[in-house]
Amino acid sequence: MTNLDNQITQTLKKVAGELDQPNFVMPDQVVAYKRKRSRLLSTLLLPVSISCALLLTISVSPTFAAYVKSLFDGSDQELQHAAQEGYSQKVNASVTDRGYTLEIEEILADPMRIVAVYSIKDQQKNFIHPDKLYISNVEVTDLQGNVIKETKSYGIEIQENYGYITLKKPGETDQQKLLLQFEGKQIDSVEGNWALKIPFDLEKTTKASKVLSIDKTYTTPQGLQINLNSIMHSPTAARVDYETKWTEEAKKRLVQESKQVKGKVDSADPYVRYDDFKLNFHVENEQGEIVKDLTRALDTPRKVVGEYGHSNRKYGFAPLSPDHQYTLVLDSLVKTEPYELGVSFEPKQLAEKPVRVDKDGKTIEIKSVTFEEPLNEASPNNEKHATILLEAYLKDISYINIADTILLDDDTDKIVNRFGWTIKDEKGKIYNVTGGDFKTIGKDEQGRNHVRIKLQSYEMRELPQKISLTSELAKKSYDLDWKVPLPMPKEDK
Amino acid sequence: MKGSHHFPIPKEVGPIDFETLVQPHLTSAFRVAFLIVHDYHLAQDAVQEALWEAYQSLYRFDKQKGSSFRAWFIKIVTHRALNMVRRKKKTEPYMDSIDPGQNPLESILQKEKEQQIWRAIQMMTPKHRSAVILYYYEEFSIAEIAKILGVFEGTVKSRLHKARKLIAEKMQGKKETQIFTELGVNMHD
């Protein structure tokens, strides 16, 4: 690489590195409910089989030497801090195959998460971009080889020459000594076997973690009773554990609401949305400074405690400094409710101006119906499809699902009902929504949320004379303001 | 039609769901899209569309031996981003040359050289720009970029060559301006 080449790379990295990543709608969230418990149905094909992976087991002796310099220094602040406090474990385990060396250099593990730093080098010891590794398996086992299931999900962040791979929830096991298994099947275009088994220890970080009781209760005006059980302080994060259940009155209201939503299967029984809500929290110090939210990094699914939505949930954030006092603030409750939206229009009308409908305090404006030209031949999907663009002004509505939500039978896994947008033409033909987007633009002068919705259908290949759009559910946001001081661990002196 | 599947519900169950598969590449995908369209919201749209497309076409990826998921997903993102540029051009005059004063990202590029490089990249045609981004930012090989863009390797090489020349010229031009300014000749209005 010439000097100019290096400068181009550095410039692009600087520009791109400044961007905050927006949130994206995950298409596999199309399937969200089961009759009794909620889970994602969509598990997809794994492109490379992992069943016959030959594990090149390596003998590794992690050194728990005093902290000198850590690869976490260039990482998130909370990981940096934990490494500086001596919780990072130097590993330096490597495996070489087909001229490439995969190395795990350092691990930071506590009861909240495990973060391992890896790198790839070629024969000349040049770093290869960590993205070039096709990871085929990552899991944590105990020393007997039993997989700790909760640690299955992972995320990767790339910084310079290193990949930071995160596994969540190692705390669900009582075992302190565990093994991280990390396998790759392809580096760049070269297929091979790179498999490492790295022992690591949770003892030190578990000792440094404290669970303190909170025990405060609050009932929202919507009838959701929240009990803050405890807070866990660990070297890399803090997490509040809370329980939710509906009051008797709220349960009756939810049953009533379920009858207002028919879904797309006429014969289906009503589905009561006891679990379909989200609480939004933040933590601030006495100066009003907000603590970094780690919900994504520590995300854990709720645990069912009892019937009617009685469940245990968690909210995670960065570790708290002993120099400050902190308060947990409950900002809002977002609840999925019946919410009728409907508009019929003739696409030809749009040539003159957008079609606007005002009804019951809701405004919908159909902006356009366009047909995408086939993309470049190299694109995997070059089919012609329709895109309907609309904007709406809706009070307190924070989100409307684009994809269908499918209700499954718990025992048979058969579809019981589906909820979502319906696109119908003048002949009654229904076009399924096969893509789209929801974006909040801001608020209008009446304080309503201004949203932009894009509905796409690969099934609509030509323009119908008339189109009708309907939706019967939306996420409604209720502002709340419940504040609870958070207990801090007493320093052991 | 009622009750029919329109989203691909997988026939075989694997241990990784779509989000797990795609999540590690989202940051990089969004950045690639942004560097191509240099508009935050359009880049967001491009990646969102790419997510739907990847989800619906995942069965096609399975057939594509020898291509990593990352390369396959970035290919979709790149095409969606290029499509955004084309759409943007149709609806409004495309600002290929951006007023540096209006570009907040320039403030983070402290060095004069970096600002010149970024401006030169912004001023390139989208097809040259995408080759530059895939090569220099994503560090794909020439062969991989050829696959992603659906062109011959020679075309990628020639686009990169032209792009480098453009950047060098932009930097050289600036140098000349500086020399003239030092000599007391004001080149600007």
Describe the structure.
The complex is a heterodimer of chains A (493) and B (189). With 493 residues, chain A is mainly beta. Chain A has three domains: 51-206, Immunoglobulin-like, CATH 2.60.40; 209-336 and 480-485, Immunoglobulin-like (Sandwich), CATH 2.60.40.1640; 338-476, no CATH class. Chain A contains five helices and 28 strands. In chain A, the strands form six sheets. In chain A, strands 2, 3, 4, 5, 7 and 8 form a six-stranded antiparallel sheet that branches. In chain A, strands 14, 17, 21, 24, 25 and 28 form a six-stranded antiparallel sheet that branches. A five-stranded antiparallel sheet of chain A has the order 11-12-13-16-15. In chain A, strand 22 (405-408) and strand 23 (415-419) form a beta hairpin. Chain A is globular and about 65 Å long. The termini of chain A are far apart. Residues 36-68 and 374-380 of chain A have low confidence and may be disordered. Chain B has 189 residues and is mainly alpha-helical. Chain B folds into two domains: 15-94, Rna Polymerase Sigma Factor, Chain: A; 98-189, Arc Repressor Mutant, subunit A, CATH 1.10.10.10. Helix content of chain B is 68%, strand content 0%. Chain B has helices at 18-37, 40-63, 69-91, 112-123, 126-137, 142-149, 153-182. In chain B, helix 1 packs across helix 2 (40-63) and helix 5 (126-137) crosses helix 7. At the A-B interface, helix 1, strand 7 and strand 26 of A face helix 1, helix 2, helix 3, helix 4 and helix 5 of B.
